[in-house]
Task: inverse folding
């Protein structure tokens, strides 16, 4: 899973930007239930392809931007949402939907550990970026 942050800070008005975050499981799980695995695969892979397409477009057109590709995760803080996400992921895995091969699922203590590691890493990166910009 990737997120692209495009911050075109040298444009007028400044600080235009946004992100692209494909949804590898919730939309595809909904489609799987109503239209079957072939359509779910098509929808899921279409979303995943957008990451590479946007990246190629920015490079091909020479768009000046702070282009950052990262990995992300979704966090669910309530039981019903967690149960649905787990069931959706299991259904997509059973149907061999390609995009879920790159999705990890963590619950309880392991989820907390992953979140702590991620946020500590992001804090260090932010501090390092701040130091570099002052240099």
Result:
């Amino acid at each position: 899973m990737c997120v692209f942050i495009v911050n075109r800070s040298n444009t007028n008005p400044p600080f235009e930007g946004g992100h692209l975050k494909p949804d590898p499981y919730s939309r595809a799980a909904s489609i799987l239930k109503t239209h079957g695995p072939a359509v779910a695969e098509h929808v899921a892979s279409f979303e995943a392809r957008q990451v590479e397409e946007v990246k190629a477009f920015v490079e091909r057109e020479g768009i000046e931007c702070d282009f950052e590709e990262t990995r992300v995760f979704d966090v669910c803080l309530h039981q019903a949402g967690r149960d649905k996400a787990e069931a959706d992921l299991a259904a997509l895995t059973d149907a061999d939907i390609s995009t879920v091969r790159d999705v990890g699922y963590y619950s309880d203590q392991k989820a907390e550990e992953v979140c702590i590691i991620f946020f500590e890493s992001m804090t260090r990166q932010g501090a390092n970026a701040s130091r570099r910009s002052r240099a």
Remarks:
- The mean pLDDT is 77.
- The first strand starts at residue 3 and ends at 8.
- Strands lie at 3-8, 16-20, 66-70.
- The longest helix spans residues 108-134.
